[in-house]
Amino acid sequence: MYNLFVTAREGAWEIPGYEYDRSRFLEYTNESLAERFKVLGPEQIEYLKSIPCLFAYEGFRGGVKVGRITQIQERGKTLLIEYEFHPRIQLISHERIEEISHLLDIRKWEMSRTHWAIKDENLFDRLRSSGLVHRNTQDWPPGAISRRQPSEAKSQISRVSTVAGFIKKVLTEIDNNGSEVFYRGHSDRRKYKLEPSLFRRDGRGNYTHLHNEHILYRELIISNAEDFESDHYTLDHLIRMQHYSLPTRLLDITSNPLIALYFACKSKQGELKNEKHESEVEGEVIVFAISGNHIKYFDSDKASCIANLARLPKTEKDEIDFNVSDEVAFNGQPSIKRLTHFIREEKPFFEPKIVSSHLRDVVCVKSKKNNARIHSQSGAFLLFGLDAVLDESGSENIKISRISVSNKAEILAELDRLNINESTVFPYIESSAKYVANRYKFVAPKT
């Protein structure tokens, strides 16, 4: 196993420390491996320091160096690494490392993006067998092979198996401390993360839709223009797209805890074929206590800035330099000017004074209840900015707690008695017909 560090910043590997956005950590890392490092506790940090590293520039520009991490520090939304290079291994040329990139699980397209990946390959074995280092070169740092991989971090969560037990926990154990509380239900607490569908990756850690966000946005409007005629803001478009299951930078949440409990018990259609297995998988309700300054309304300028990122091509998003501290200079960048143009289409008097930190934030948006589903589900959304990450344990402005849910079939029956079922949560005739048919289906008596 080894760390792969890629950057576009000229001269980055000429200084003893480098800072990565937290969002770029674990990109292009196999999902099963990423699960073990998404929380960086002391065990995870020590393991990452004990395995070798490849330090590269985008496109393998100028070749790569071999080294190790000496320190890792979490600094809010960034990770600072300090490192040193192997004293006896020279720079490996662009051409030589590219020849074995497939053996090192380095994918060509990932070399065009700044990121930190963890690869499940023996770096020194690959370098020795390819003749890139002498066959007698020892693993460095020593001890990585003998060190056990860290186990997946587990959080302390409450558990419920009845609606009454859930309501009691919501009413007595959740301290909002002046914040507004929202909820989200996951039918499988091991599988789902707090990330919008646009940011999801396949089993090998590749983004499935993120790079084509601007195309997804435009293609759906082209195909179904009439459905979007009443929408005024880009945010309205994204909410409607989310409603029709297009990957977006929105994550659904609700102000009604019982709606979240329903989703924690009800798996997505076609997700699990074995009904018995489906009922045995633990669900969870995530509780968000969100500070007032991170709750915005549908017409918020900050929400418009983030939402309109969906219209920028990936190349233009990548060109935004967030290291520019001067506000005028930041807003003078071509990509930011284009973003401002998009915002002014919906807000003609918007001034070109975008705050750089706003574009990388996660905010709660209260939307217009302009469709039956949002109304029935008491819906709101978390809107994710550029490369934004919501840590599974929460953040300074979004506190998170969890309630594990078992006995799902019985809970669904109890919720039905409270008129929370497929017909009321999804208020469409298809859902109502399905609910009525299932409710009055003949079941042969047990003999």
Distance between the terminal alpha carbons, to the nearest Å?
Answer: 58 Å
Largest sheet: 6 strands, mixed
What strand order characterises the main sheet?
Answer: 2-5-4-3-1-6
How many helices? The count is: 17
Q: Give me the Rg, rounded.
A: 24 Å
Helix share, percent: 25-40%
DSSP strand count? 14
Number of domains: 2
The overall pLDDT, averaged over residues, is 89
What is the overall silhouette?
globular
Roughly what fraction of the amino acids lie in strands?
A: 15-25%
Low-pLDDT parts are 270-276
Architecture overview:
The structure is a single chain. Helices cover 29% and strands 19% of the residues. It has 17 helices and 14 strands. A hairpin with a 7-residue loop joins strand 3 and strand 4. Helix 8 (257-265) crosses helix 15. The N and C termini lie far apart (58 Å).
List keywords for this structure.
alpha+beta; six-stranded mixed sheet; four-stranded mixed sheet; about 20% strand
Write a brief caption for the model.
The protein is of the alpha+beta class and 447 residues long. It contains 17 helices and 14 strands. Helix 8 packs across helix 15.
